[in-house]
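Render this sequence as a predicted structure.
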Amino acid sequence: MTLSAKDPKQFPLLRNLQFSPVKDHDEQYVVLWDPTGLSTERLIVPLHYFYLFQHFDGEHSLEQIGAQYLKKYGEFFMPGRLEKLVADLDEKLFLEGERVEAAKRATLAAFRQAPVRKAAFTGKSYEENGEKLTLQLDGFFASKEGPGIKPSAHKGQKIKGIVAPHYEMRQAGPIYAWAYKELQEAETPDLFVILGTCHVGLQNLFAVTEKDFETPLGVVPVNRAVLDRFRQKGGGPFFEEEISHRNEHSIEFQLPFLQHTVGHHKPITIVPVLCAFPPSCLVDPELRPMKDAVETFIRALKEAIAESGHEACVVASAELAHIGMRYGDPTPPTDFSFHRCMQTDLEMLKPVEELNADAFAQFIQKEEDRRRISGFAAIYTLLRFIQAEKGEVLRDDRSITDQFNSTVTYCSMAFF
């Protein structure tokens, strides 16, 4: 987000925060938080405050914001009260400005000095003790929603890639297990390109880091030889936003499964990549620089891996649709819209099974991305990267994310 040149105390600019509606009896509120983890605060505000925040765009002055509030609610939001609100948001690092820039610089320096990218979600999204985590993972495979013990139809074949969710492991773990069972039983290489979905967006569309990743099951090393070649082939700009890895869960959630199914019996290395770009950039002439960046990234990484002598398996960490009030819809989903959404997911994934990246992008564009497919960039990049004969949807599911039945859908896939 571009910082406003105007006085941030008079023209406040809200950062790219996430929010969700909450209900307490008959009262409705909105909770806001920082997905980058730069701020650890959570802020719960009534709906009329949330209306104010929609004008914290760096272009509206406090006086103009107060006027918008008066127009909407028929009452004054006193200037002193508004100034205190701005000061509180600035203190919480919710507003763009020098305080946030200083925090970013300090956080980036600390991240670069750290010997590894430490696990950020242990004890919250999955077990933080290695032995307990192993039991948890075993439970995902054995659960009634999991793949069970029946051998895969592809057992012993060379696997080229998988798609797995990045939803909370405690809920979606059995769906992850469907994809990782295929890895467990297939012939796998020792290099894995992990394409995570970046939830906060990226200026350069991809963010690569040279940090090894730590989990309760040990450290997963990056393949520095591949990354060095990638940098030499024009990949340098894609390292600039490596701080995005610090608090992003979409790669972290894949690693315990990868260690559990493959890494426990042979050494593995990874190339960790976060992705964020829309399907429109592939066809809109005004977004041609974005398309060029996608092509540059794919070419450089393909060449780097080919010259390294490695084969690679690609893991796309992706969710699918996001529907409901939490994600911007005016009303909660109905039973019909739940089922219709999941049916549409399968229609959308048909070209993915057929390895047709362009048709996958066109499907989402035709929908105008009304269902907010967050995993597009990771899945598209996987399709452009692998050379496989076929893909297969193994299992799909959904999870409800709030009191208003807002829903996220996801799936597991394998490519051979």
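Summary. Residues 18-105 form a domain with the Arc Repressor Mutant, subunit A fold (CATH 1.10.10). Residues 49 and 85 are 10 Å apart (CA to CA).
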